[in-house]
Amino acid sequence: MLTGMSFLVGTSQFAIVGILATVAASVGVSISAAGQLITVFALSNAMGTPLVILATAKTDRRQQLLLALTIILVGCGLMAIPGFGFLLMAYVVLGIGAGVFVVTAYATAATLAPPGRQGRAMSNVSLGFSASLVFGVPIGRVVAAAYDWQVIFWAIGLLTLLSLFAVARVIPAMSVEGPVPLGKQLALLKNPNIALALAVTLFVFIAYSMMNTYITPFLTHVVMIGKGQISVVLFALGMASLMGSKLGGVLSDRIGTRRTLLSDMVIHALVLVLLSIMAGTRVAAIPLLMLWATAAWTFGPTQNFNLLSLAPEVSGMVLSLNSSFVQLGFAMGAAVGGIAVGSSIRAISWLGAVSVAVAFGIACIAFSRARTSQSRTPR
């Protein structure tokens, strides 16, 4: 049930990516302005979620899930009010609701699972979000082509309402552990190795967000893909993303986390450079875009393994911080990409390559520091 709801929540974030031009035209703004919906969603997710979690620390997890779904329902309701301002407000609310749901769903799944199966339960929740990227974007385009694009969010709202009843009936009341103060979480940033690793996350997701947010206009105006074929291409990119998520874990086990991260970032940057040069050639552009999606999503699980190795004693806190930096990357990438699109749509791939190159440089510094620290540790 939580996996299905995770798909629903993920679709509320990713569905708009495939219909950005349609949304922009319907509210009378430019594509770059509409792209800032991704920015406000990510910012409200990264900044609002810990505040709501702290404010509801004394409530049980079922109540937190109900609160998260109620916030998402309110966000979907705001979609019915005309105007770009209300659309922005709706995405702020959706970002907070989605963030609270994600945090609580992982904790709930781990609590409900029998001993020794917590990790599998949490991965099932994660599968819902991955599936929303694969199916949510093309489904959004199909629905928007047949009906008004707002129908997508009305459907999400209806399913969210049903989810409220399901959670109230099925999920038992569960006490929560004492909350970790926000100040204690931020204190982890004083650890140079963790701070550098989080900076790598930030710059990689800035690059990913620049391309992902404006992927539809990039396909239309640069690759020259017809509107009828875009859904097929987006589905293929979603499948490549799923393969990347699996590949990250496999490569980390076989060749090590550091080699996987560094080689992945090299491939990621090179693909973005080649895209800027060869995007006009459809035969080359589609495979390159699939390789880009694979490389971008190979990074995620590998970086999680890396962070866990840096601070295994505070794994929950460090992964929570990493999630916030992912969302900040989404926000900054959408914002920078919006400025770039105003001059040239091709610029997003160049800027993305630069951002990944910066992440690669930071990673080299971080790994060098770690090797130096290990060599100085007495045996």
From TrEMBL:
SUPFAM superfamilies: MFS general substrate transporter. The chain crosses the membrane at residues 7-27, 33-53, 65-84, 90-113, 125-145, 151-171, 192-210, 230-249, 261-279, 285-307, 319-341, 347-367. It comes from the Bacteria. One of its GO terms (cellular component) is plasma membrane. Residues 1-371 form the Major facilitator superfamily (MFS) profile domain. Its main location: membrane. Keywords: Cell membrane, Membrane, Transmembrane, Transmembrane helix, Transport. It is found in: Cell membrane. Pfam families: MFS_1 (PF07690). It is a multi-pass membrane protein. GO terms for molecular function: transmembrane transporter activity. InterPro entries: MFS, MFS_dom, MFS_Efflux_Transporters, MFS_trans_sf. PANTHER family: PURINE EFFLUX PUMP PBUE. This is MFS transporter. It comes from Sulfobacillus harzensis.
